[in-house]
Specification:
The protein is an alpha+beta fold. Helix content is about 35%, strand content about 25%.
């Protein structure tokens, strides 16, 4: 069978605005083609939502991108199996659900008086039969806004690093950031991590005040400020689902 015929069978082109798709075993996987003039080659990535993202480089074409995907069906099938094997993220938090709080797995429980307890925290709610996640996350964010800025200034003072402002945000893809003006932004979900992980993220951002990049010098500065940073990095990788 010629390549053109093989790729025609693999791909199912649908009418706009629906994306193209590719048949992988018994599954039809949606394809998202993204042109990137800075990319040097075609890239394929399976997103968490099951969509295959295909980066098309400058002067590249959709037809060549489809051929590239077709040649990597085996790799894509492995990624699908890996994605399906991952534990499903619990979208709703109800009584009995275990959540991260200060680095520990704690269970959401109800007290005799109707209060919600998780770890050391008590929360008054009118209805405990609904999804408790919004109310608990609101409480966690308030805790983070109260605690994180003070810890930043404490570590900054300890290491002689100047910080102009600290903000606590609802970031979806990063734990923290640092601007050239000295503003440090932290993810409120750090309140769910162990203290050593929280401090590592803060020190990581403080290191950017001396090296505004991720060069070797930057990582040397990180190691000087936080000698066990690799342990914290490992914890974050294992618990990346907290950002979802």
């Amino acid at each position: 069978m010629k390549n053109d015929e093989m790729f025609a069978q693999l791909f199912k082109s649908t009418q706009a605005p629906k994306p193209d798709s590719i048949q992988v075993g018994s599954k039809s996987i949606p394809l998202l083609f993204v042109h990137n003039p800075k990319a040097r080659r075609y890239l394929l990535r399976l997103r968490a939502d099951g969509v295959a993202r295909v980066t098309v480089p400058r002067r590249g074409s959709i037809s060549t991108a489809k051929e590239f995907v077709g040649k990597n069906i085996g790799w894509l099938e492995q990624q699908i199996q890996r994605l399906e094997a991952q534990p499903k993220t619990v979208n709703e938090w109800r009584l009995g659900t275990e959540i991260h709080f200060r680095g520990e797995q704690v269970k959401i429980e109800v007290e005799t008086g109707g209060q919600i307890r998780f770890g050391s925290e008590l929360l008054n709610l009118h209805d405990v039969s609904v999804d408790l996640r919004p109310a608990i996350q609101k409480h966690l964010r308030k805790l983070a806004q109260k605690e994180l800025p003070g810890r930043v200034m404490e570590l900054a003072s300890l290491h002689g690093i100047e910080v102009s402002r600290v903000s606590v945000r609802n970031q979806k893809s990063r734990w923290g950031s640092c601007s050239r003006k000295g503003t440090i932004a932290l993810n409120w979900r750090l309140i769910q991590t162990p203290d050593f992980v929280r401090d590592y993220i803060i020190l990581h951002e403080l290191a950017h005040r001396r090296q505004m990049n991720h060069s070797d010098r930057f990582w040397q500065e990180v190691e000087r400020l936080c000698p066990d940073y690799l342990v914290a990095e490992r914890w974050l990788k294992l618990n990346a689902k907290l950002l979802r």
